[in-house]
Design brief:
Shape: elongated
CATH topology of the largest domain: Umud Fragment, subunit A
Number of strands: 7
Structural class: alpha+beta
Helix content: 40-55%
Number of domains: 2
Distance between the termini: 22 Å
CATH superfamily of the largest domain: Umud Fragment, subunit A
Strand content: 25-35%
CATH class of the largest domain: Mainly Beta
Order of helices and strands: HEEEEEEEHH
Length: 175
């Protein structure tokens, strides 16, 4: 029983740390977007975006996350994220000409309208396959609340076992 309690305490502490880190990221993201009015959050020179369209399929699919290094050092064939009107687009660079960059989605037939280098946020360094699906599950209130209630119930159940073990130990010492 004591081993089970130790394992439970370790798991509980890890979960608390994970939730704390998640809350810190959420708070940092909120400040960057809503207080400082940035269009994306800068995490030590990197940012990430959820893909909403199939324009880059099969390389990048809907619900994938792209992790982007914020830089203006890009080359032909890099996949970049950039501002296009009021949205952020992630497409492949097909040509660079002085100050203009030409991009195209891998799944699109037509080349995008040229963009200026100042519109570039950065280049994709990692593609998180289906991360959007996982994020939707994690951030779903029903899932989060159910998980939180489960942890509390386990804590209550195991804490009553701890009290019984302590009272049993005290009886043995007194005898």
């Amino acid at each position: 029983m004591k081993v089970l309690l130790k394992i439970y305490n370790i798991v509980l502490n890890v979960l608390i740390v994970i939730v704390f880190i998640f809350l810190c990221f959420a708070l940092y993201n909120y400040v960057q977007i809503n207080v400082l009015k940035n269009r994306y959050t800068n995490y030590l020179g990197y940012t990430f975006f959820e893909i909403q369209t199939g324009s880059m399929e099969p390389t990048i699919n809907i619900d994938d996350y792209v992790f982007v290094k914020i830089t203006d050092d890009i080359d032909k064939d890099d996949i970049i994220s950039y501002y296009s009107d009021s949205s952020i687009v992630t497409h492949r660079v097909i040509d660079i000409d002085d100050n203009m960059i030409y991009t195209k989605g891998d799944n699109n037939n037509a080349v995008d309208k040229p963009i200026e280098k100042e519109s570039v946020i950065g280049k994709v360094v990692y593609i998180g396959k289906d991360y959007g699906k996982y994020m939707n599950i994690i951030t779903e209130p029903r899932v989060f609340i159910s998980f939180f209630i489960t942890v509390i119930l386990f804590n209550i159940a195991l804490s009553s076992d701890k009290k019984e073990v302590r009272s049993h130990d005290k009886k043995e010492i007194q005898e």
